[in-house]
Amino acid sequence: MKLREYILDEPDEWMLCEPIAEYCRVTAQQLNLFPPTTRQTHPMDIRVVELFAGVGGFRIGLERASKRFCTVWNNQWEPSTKRQDASIVYCNRFGYEGHSNADIATIPTSDIPECDLLVGGFPCQDYSVATTLKRAGGIEGKKGVLWWQIYRILNEAQHKPDYLFFENVDRLLKSPSSQRGRDFAIILSSLCDLGYIVEWRVVNAAEYGMPQRRRRTYIVGYRKNSSIAKKISDENKWLTSDGVIASALPVVYDQSQFKQFSIKGNLPSVSSRFNQENRGDLFENTGMIVDRNVTTIKTESAYCGPHLTLRQIMIDESLVPEDYFIADKDLPKWEYLKGSKKLKRVDKATGFEYDYSEGSMAFPDNLDCPSRTIITSEGGASPSRFKHIVLTPSGRYRRLTPIELERLNMFPDNHTKGVSDTRRAFLMGNALVTGIVEKIGLSLINRL
Question: Could you say which of 24, 70, 115, 124 is catalytic?
Answer without folding.
Answer: 124
